[in-house]
Inverse folding.
C-alpha cells in the first residue's frame, strides 16, 4: 500500500512540475492533468491448514514375575534296620556241601560264630526257628540263611563261602530239626563253584548251627552283606548297575 501511494505522489509532483514549466513559457496554453486512479490490489491471504496429529499413549504394561515359593528339604534320619532275633555271641556253624558232578568243589567245614554277625530266631516253643548272618571263615567269610517251615518238618537254606579253596554258593531244601540250642537242615539242592558257568546238582546239603549264647539286639552290617554278595567270583561276571 505505501509503495502504491509513493508512486502516485511522484506522478502528481511530476505533473505539477511540467504544468508550471509550460505555463511559464506558454501563457495561452492550458494543460489538463490526467487523473490517475489507484486501485489497491487485493491482499492475497494464504491459509495454512495444519492437520491435527492424534497421539495415542499406550496403557502402561505391568509385568508380574511370579516368585517360586522356597522349597524346604527336610532330611529324615534313617532309622536303624530292625533285625529279627538275637546276636549269637558263642556257637559254631558246620556245613557239608557236595557237588555230584564236581567232587573237587565239595566243601565241608566248621567255623566259630563268636565275633561274627550271625543271628538266631526262636519259635514260640523256644526252639531255633532260623539262623542268618555272616561270620569270618579262614581268609574269607561264610554267609548262612536257614529257616524251618513251621508245622512242616522241613526247611530251606542258603550258604555261600569265600575261603580260598572253599568257594561256592548253594541253595537247598530238606528235613529240618531244632531245639533250644541246635538246628539242622539235611537235604539236596543246586549250587555254583569256581568257573560259575552252570548250576550243578548238590546231592548233599547239610548245614548245622549250634548256639551256646545269644543276646539282643541282632547285629548285621548291610554294607558287609553287600560287599560279600557282590564279591569277585572266579569266572563270574556280574552285571553293572
Amino acid at each position: 500500500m505505501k509503495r502504491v501511494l509513493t508512486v502516485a505522489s511522484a506522478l502528481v509532483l511530476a505533473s505539477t512540475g511540467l504544468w508550471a514549466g509550460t505555463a511559464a513559457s506558454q501563457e495561452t496554453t492550458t494543460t489538463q492533468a490526467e487523473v490517475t486512479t489507484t486501485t489497491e490490489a487485493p491482499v492475497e491471504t494464504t491459509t495454512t491448514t495444519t492437520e491435527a496429529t492424534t497421539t495415542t499413549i499406550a496403557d502402561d504394561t505391568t509385568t508380574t514375575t511370579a516368585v517360586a515359593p522356597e522349597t524346604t528339604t527336610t532330611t529324615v534320619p534313617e532309622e536303624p534296620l530292625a533285625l529279627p532275633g538275637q546276636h549269637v555271641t558263642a556257637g559254631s556253624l558246620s556245613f557239608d556241601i557236595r557237588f555230584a558232578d564236581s567232587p573237587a568243589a565239595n566243601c565241608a567245614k566248621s567255623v566259630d560264630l563268636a565275633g561274627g554277625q550271625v543271628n538266631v530266631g526262636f519259635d514260640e516253643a523256644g526252639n531255633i526257628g532260623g539262623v542268618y548272618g555272616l561270620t569270618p571263615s579262614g581268609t574269607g567269610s561264610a554267609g548262612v540263611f536257614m529257616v524251618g517251615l513251621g508245622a512242616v518238618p522241613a526247611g530251606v537254606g542258603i550258604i555261600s563261602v569265600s575261603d580260598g579253596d572253599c568257594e561256592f554258593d548253594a541253595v537247598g531244601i530238606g528235613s529240618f530239626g531244632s531245639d533250644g540250642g541246635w538246628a539242622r537242615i539235611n537235604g539236596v539242592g543246586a549250587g555254583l563253584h569256581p568257573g560259575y558257568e552252570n548250576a550243578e546238582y548238590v546231592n548233599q546239603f547239610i548245614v548245622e548251627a549250634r548256639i551256646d549264647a545269644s543276646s539282643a539286639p541282632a547285629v548285621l552290617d548291610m554294607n558287609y552283606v553287600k560287599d560279600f554278595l557282590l564279591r569277585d567270583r572266579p569266572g563270574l561276571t556280574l552285571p553293572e548297575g
